[in-house]
Amino acid sequence: MGVEKEKLNTSIIMDEDEFNRSIEPILMKKGKVYSEAPVRDPNEINTHLKVGFEDVIGEPSSAHSFDRVWIGSHATFELVKFFFYRLLTTLLAVPMAFTLGLVFGVLSCVHIWLVMPVVQSFMMLLPSAQKIWRSLVDIFVVPLFQSLGKCLSSIQIETTEN
């Protein structure tokens, strides 16, 4: 129970294949410590935003940097993307949720209490206009397009190769 005087060396050993397959930030590695994250995009409306390091930066087979540079740049990319997303959502999520809630609330109110009653009133009051419009279309438009169809149906096009 005395003071420990031993020095311990610690190091991180990362398999390069496992590192390259990972599309999540290093800090979010799923393991025994973390539980399953809830699905926040069940309808997959943001599948186009799944950007990985390989989607942005790629080295052709003719030019390769050092492996440690590649791993370091990959880690930097993922960490910066992770931290800036967290920072921006911390700053903007609540105000944007408030603004969008307000906008959709106003739009719902206008649609329910103004637009639909007007549309329903016109539909109830104007069935005669609907019958008149249908008869005008039947008198003028339908015969015109039927005759055009009969005239153009007699045209035959043949393609031949020379």
What descriptors fit this protein?
single chain; 162 residues; mainly alpha; 4 helices; molecular adaptor activity; Caveolin; transmembrane
Describe the overall structure.
The protein is mainly α. Helix content is 59%, strand content 0%. The chain is built from 4 helices and no strands. The longest helix has 59 residues, at 67-125. The relative contact order is 0.05. The mean pLDDT is 80.
Provide the fold topology.
Elements: H1 16-21, H2 53-56, H3 67-125, H4 127-153
Produce a short descriptive summary:
By secondary structure, the chain is an all-alpha fold.
Estimate the mean pLDDT confidence.
Answer: 80
Structural class: mainly alpha
- Parts with pLDDT < 50 across at least 5 consecutive residues: none
Apparent shape:
flat
> What is the strand content?
under 5%
DSSP strand tally? 0
Q: Major sheet: size, sense and barrel closure?
A: none
Question: How many helix segments?
Answer: 4
Sketch the topology as an H/E string, one letter per element: HHHH
**Helix percent band:** 55-70%
- What distance separates the N and C termini? 100 Å
Radius of gyration of CA atoms, rounded to a whole number = 33 Å
Membrane topology: Peripheral membrane protein
Main location: membrane
Subcellular location: Cell membrane; Golgi apparatus membrane; Membrane, Caveola
Family: Belongs to the caveolin family.
